[in-house]
Amino acid sequence: MMTRDEYDETREGREQAGGRWRGRGRGGGTGGRGRGGWQVADLPAADDAEDWFRGRLPKAWFSEVEVTVDREEILVVGTLAEEADGAEAEGRISRFRAETRAERIEIAEEAQARYRRKVSWGARLGANGALFTHVAAPVMTRLRQPERRVLDTLVDAGVARSRSDALAWSVRLVGEHADEWLGQLREAMAEVDKLRSDGPTV
């Protein structure tokens, strides 16, 4: 039996799809192999997504907005323009979520039509935070025995529940310890994409 909160999440996710927009290919792209398996160029550029949301969101909602983009999802996390902590902050986040649902769905539909990515939401208040919706995208991969043994060791040690959970844990660990390097790599890739877009067309 689905809880009311789980039902709301499912309904909100369906409504965010808008019924009219459907992604093409994996990650909403139009298909086509390339760097990393699927070309980023298959999707509309989302470099201006943070500026778009800052202009589109009601000013009364958030004191700060953080927008994170990948191939499948745009995650919008705002800091509520209030002061509270503990259970009171959790309650205010929950109230904000309920009161703004319809308007957030409308904004998400506009953004999804513009960027062809799902839009997910979250809010922070004091030391508290919550993600209302988010995309958990499956990633397929093939591993040789030495790599599978790494995952099996994590499972056998109780660090992870399954190989897929162990793989997700490993990715999070790399992200935490290589954040600076990954940031430099993303900046270099963005510069390459810019040079490619500025180059002559064939």
Give the SSE layout:
Blueprint (H helix, E strand, L loop, with lengths): L3 H14 L31 H8 L5 E8 L3 E8 L5 H30 L2 E8 L2 E4 L13 H12 L6 H15 L1 H20 L4
Parallel strand pairs: 2-3
Antiparallel strand pairs: 1-2, 3-4
Give your account of this protein's structure.
By secondary structure, the protein is α+β, with helices and mostly antiparallel strands. The chain has 6 helices and 4 strands, in the order H-H-E-E-H-E-E-H-H-H. The chain has helices at 4-17, 49-56, 86-115, 145-156, 163-177, 179-198, and strands at 62-69, 73-80, 118-125, 128-131. A hairpin with a 2-residue loop joins strand 3 (118-125) and strand 4 (128-131). Helix 1 (4-17) packs parallel to helix 3. The model is unreliable at 1-11 and 13-41 (pLDDT under 50).
